[in-house]
TrEMBL record:
Its main location: cytoplasm. GO terms for biological process: nucleocytoplasmic transport. This is Uncharacterized protein. The keyword Repeat applies. InterPro entries: Leu-rich_rpt (IPR001611), LRR_dom_sf (IPR032675), RanGap (IPR027038).
Amino acid sequence: MATISSADNGIGYEGYKALAKALTPNAEGVSNSSLRSLNLADNNDYDERGVQALVTALAPNEVGVFNRSLKWLNLDFTGIRREGSEALLLLLRPTSQGFVNMSLNTLILKNNSLMGYENQTALLEAARNHPNAGAIKIEF
C-alpha cells in the first residue's frame, strides 16, 4: 500500500497544485493506481486554493474518471474554510452525470474549525446520502 505523508511540511499552494496534477487521471483515465493514503496534516497555509485543487483532482470528472485507489485522506489542520468544504462535497456527492467516488472511505478533517458548523453538517449529510453510506468515515 503506497502512502504519501507530507505532514507539517508547509507544502503551500504550489505543493498542493503539484500533488493535484500528479493525482489527476490522464485523458485515458489512467492515474496513480498504488496510492492508498495521503496524509497532509498540519499543512495550514491559510490558502484554500491548494486544498480545492487537490480535492477537485480526486473527485470524479464530467466523464466519471477519478483516482480510484485513494482510500484514506488526512486534511487535519489544513485551514479549510467555506470554499474548501464546498470542494470536499465533490468527493461525496454524485456529479450531475451521476458519477461518484466509491473508493474513499476515511476523510479526516479535525482542527478545521473555520469551515463552520453548517459546512460540517453538509459534509456529514453528503456522507449519509452517499451510495456507499456507512463505508465513509468523516472525523471532525
